[in-house]
Design a protein that fits this description.
The complex is a heterodimer of chains A (about 400) and B (about 325).
Chain A lengths: L1 H22 L1 H6 L4 E8 L6 H20 L10 E8 L4 H13 L4 E4 L3 H12 L5 E3 L15 E3 L4 H18 L6 E7 L2 H13 L6 E8 L7 H10 L3 E5 L2 H13 L6 E5 L7 H6 L1 H4 L3 E4 L7 H12 L7 H19 L4 H10 L1 E3 L7 E5 L2 E2 L5 E6 L2 E6 L15
Parallel strand pairs in A: 1-2, 1-3, 3-4, 4-5, 6-7, 6-8, 8-9, 9-10
Antiparallel strand pairs in A: 10-14, 11-12, 12-13, 14-15
Helix pairs in contact in A: 3-13, 4-5, 13-14
Chain B lengths: L2 H16 L7 H26 L8 H16 L5 H25 L4 H21 L9 E2 L14 H24 L1 H11 L1 H6 L4 H27 L1 E2 L1 H5 L1 H14 L6 H19 L6 H16 L8 H9 L10
Antiparallel strand pairs in B: 1-2
Helix pairs in contact in B: 1-6, 2-6, 2-9, 2-11, 2-12, 3-4, 3-5, 3-9, 4-9, 6-7, 6-9, 7-9, 11-12, 12-13
Classes of the chains: A alpha/beta (about 400), B mainly alpha (about 325).
């Protein structure tokens, strides 16, 4: 039993120290160069480790830049200090780590990745009126729980699918309606099942015929049967919704078996807008379209972030610019609040508008916690790179659709 | 049961009940709540696995059923949270009876029983992931409404005490098993089912009652989990993580003992928290340290922490022996 008492005592001491430092904070803040603690929570171990790792990198780059540019100017140049928490890809740990971040006296928390992780972490934070900015957690309900402390920077599931369907119709119409028949391939988890259900309801109304909906578990190690089925059905369009590993497997198997539909149109697809996929399997990736989170390609900072990500030995994905921008937004909110005071930060987040970093959101403004300016972009892999094809304002190039067989 | 039998349980509970009033931080309190919920699931597993010798790898089936019933009855049918929790415990027991009836009737034992329970839990996970009324893969988010009727307390201490009360009841049940006629029958079935039947023990009835009791306790843990985190999806409810936690706690603490699951859960979760601080900058190092410690415990204390010398000597002196042969 002694081994149990030891950490509690340690934690008591730690919390005590944190509490005293909180009390003493106003005095410290007047001093030049005092730091403001910002909690960053990401799953850097477990099933979502790859995404969490990239998200963490994005947050770190943002803090580097803010501090290099003189810290939080409205707070006398106070530096931002990251307190990092690993949610280990499971919801209990996300809640437990949020409690720890609170104990360490962070002013706000940014991160989450994964709806379940965001759900428990933001709820734990709400006990302490601790502002929580979700980077990506798409479940619509996250901002519908009446939690005053919870804000979502990125578009919700409903917002993404609405844009995705509108743009699919526009894309098809512009090309002279080459696509009519569709096969949906989805994983049986959160993204996939929800999306498949929605597509089954919406696509027929838009003039598409769904030939079949194929579901598979995650992880799946073999897509041969799925691809054989697609081959026999000969759809014009394949709409996949799955995680990175399964998407890559699907695209590779389709290439091997020479199944070339007129288009592969992913919605929140795990691999379709990842440069790792493009780099590792350029042939399979070529021509794949995706409606997903993606930074504004016309913002020069995007290219710079991509270089810095590659310099850190990682392949660029949306997690980096998303968290980079979310942290900058939170820093702006702390500045607008005028102090690292939790209630004032929540007040600022709910009433003011903020610049959106490198994300294509213009001025971000939160309505009951959801960023109403958030917008997904449509991308396509062209010439070994991910290019934005829609909407018009952000497009770098024209869509290559239908693909030549 | 005499007063002396209950004394250790009462002292332990009193100590644990006093803990939150020492001014613990929310982090420690949250840790204790999670640990007690896992201890409760472990106490449930121990009834069947420890006392009954039927090793289940699928207690998630009961945990998840308790959790889903508690959440769904509140969200979809507008039940009172207490009633929903009670019903969750009942549903857990029913699922236990059903799985028990199917597998014990077929005479499944040992690794076959373990595999069947694992399969049931997986089937439940896949069904819950696909069905609409469970919220599908998006899961269920219980609305945050602090209050007595919704079983959500603004003060974490109260929730901690509630979970502790459940752990107390489960401890008393375990203590009762060590002393009662039913418990003796159960242990007889564990040690040698044929011999027990020859002596007139209805092995099937005993095992069925044990699995229902075990499932009810684990179902309660599920219901409390969802009340604490207010979030549930198929992976949380029926995932293998809880089957493993429910089985590790008693194995590490001391299988087939009343206190084993509680000690095991506190030790394991405590170790997990301590190793987190050793992680430094490299993600996952804490998990490696955790695994190494776990291997050490199993290598050097095969009968669990309560089987270590100071505990064992005392038990021998009193002429007790409840640790299973060959465990």
């Amino acid at each position: 039993m002694t081994s149990i008492l030891a950490p509690s005592r340690r934690a008591v001491l730690r919390t005590g120290l944190a509490a005293t430092s909180l009390v003493a904070m106003p005095a410290i803040l007047r001093a030049q160069g005092a730091s403001v603690k910002l909690g960053i929570i990401q799953p850097v171990t477990g099933a979502l480790a790859n995404d969490g790792d990239l998200g963490k990198l994005g947050a770190e780059l943002a803090v580097q830049d803010i501090n290099a540019a003189g810290g939080l100017k409205a707070l006398g140049g106070a530096k931002l200090e990251i307190v990092f928490a690993d949610s280990r890809s499971n919801p209990e740990t996300a809640a437990q780590e949020t409690e720890r971040l609170n104990g360490e006296g962070v002013a706000a928390i940014v991160g989450g990745f994964g709806s379940g992780l965001c759900a428990t972490a933001s709820q734990a934070a709400s006990r302490y009126d601790l502002p929580y900015l979700i980077d990506v957690g798409v479940a619509d309900q996250l901002t519908k729980r009446g939690l005053k402390n919870t804000f979502r920077f990125s578009p919700s599931f409903g917002m993404v699918t609405k844009s995705a369907l509108e743009r699919l119709v526009a894309l098809n119409d512009a090309a002279g309606k080459p696509a009519r028949t569709v096969v949906i391939v989805h994983e049986d988890g959160l993204f996939g099942s929800g999306l498949a259900k929605l597509l089954q309801a919406e696509l027929p109304k838009l003039g598409f015929e769904i030939l079949e909906t194929v579901s598979h578990p995650s992880p799946a190690r073999d897509m041969a049967n799925v691809v054989l089925r697609i081959r026999s059905l000969q759809p014009d369009l394949v709409i996949p919704s799955n995680y990175y590993g399964e998407f890559v497997l699907l695209a590779r198997t389709m290439l091997q078996q020479r199944v070339r539909p007129k288009g592969i149109y992913a919605i929140l697809g795990g691999g379709a807008s990842s440069l790792r996929f493009v780099k590792e399997f350029p042939q399979a990736a070529e021509g794949v379209m995706d409606c997903n989170h993606w930074p504004d390609p016309k913002n020069p900072l995007t290219a710079e972030l991509r270089k810095r990500t590659e310099a850190a030995g990682r392949a660029f994905a949306y997690n980096v610019p998303m968290n980079y921008s979310a942290v900058r937004l939170m820093a702006e909110a702390i500045e607008k609040a005028g102090a690292p005071d939790r209630l004032k930060i929540i007040e600022a987040l709910s009433t003011q508008s903020f610049s959106s970093g490198v994300m294509p959101y213009g001025q971000s403004k939160f309505d009951t916690g959801q960023n109403t300016s958030a917008l997904p972009l449509n991308t396509q892999v062209q010439g070994g790179d991910v290019k934005v094809i829609a909407p018009e304002a952000f497009a770098e190039t024209k869509a290559n659709f239908p693909l030549k067989a | 049961m005499s007063a002396r039998d209950l004394l250790p349980a009462i002292v332990a509970l009193a100590l644990l009940a006093a803990l939150p009033f020492l001014g613990l931080s929310g982090s420690v309190l949250n840790f204790l709540v999670t640990t007690l919920i896992i201890a409760l699931a472990g106490l449930g597993w121990n009834v069947l696995g420890g006392f009954g010798g039927q090793y289940s790898f699928g207690h998630a089936a009961f945990f998840g059923t308790g959790a889903y019933a508690t959440a769904i009855l509140q969200m979809k049918l507008g039940w009172n949270a207490w009633g929903a929790l009670g019903a969750g415990i009942g549903f857990g027991a029913l699922v236990g009876l059903a799985i028990g009836y199917l597998s014990f009737r077929a005479g499944l034992r040992g690794s076959y029983f373990a595999l069947v329970t694992l399969a049931f839990a997986e089937v439940f996970r896949i069904l819950a992931n696909a069905a609409d009324f469970t919220g599908g893969a998006a899961g269920l988010l219980l609305p945050l409404r602090p209050g007595l009727a919704t079983l959500q307390f603004a003060d974490r201490k109260l929730f901690y005490l509630l979970v502790l009360a459940f752990v107390g009841v489960a401890l008393l049940i375990s203590r009762w098993l060590e002393r009662s006629r039913f418990g003796a029958h159960l242990i007889a079935v564990r040690e040698n089912e044929e011999a027990a039947r020859a002596l007139g023990v209805d092995a099937l009835a005993v095992k069925l009652r044990a699995i229902a009791l075990s499932a009810a306790i684990t179902g309660a843990a599920g219901g409390l989990y969802v009340q604490s985190f207010l979030y549930l999806d198929a992976g949380v409810a029926y995932g293998t993580w809880i089957s493993v936690e429910a089985l590790l706690a008693p194995i590490v603490g001391g299988i087939g003992t009343a206190f084993g699951p509680l000690v095991g859960a506190l030790a394991l979760q405590g170790l997990g928290e301590i190793t987190k601080h050793l992680a430094g900058g490299i993600p996952g190092v804490d998990l490696v340290v955790f695994g190494a410690c776990l291997i050490a415990v199993i290598a050097f204390a095969p009968q669990g922490l309560l089987g270590l010398r100071p505990f064992r000597r005392r038990r021998k002196a009193r002429g007790e022996r409840t640790v299973p042969v060959g465990a």
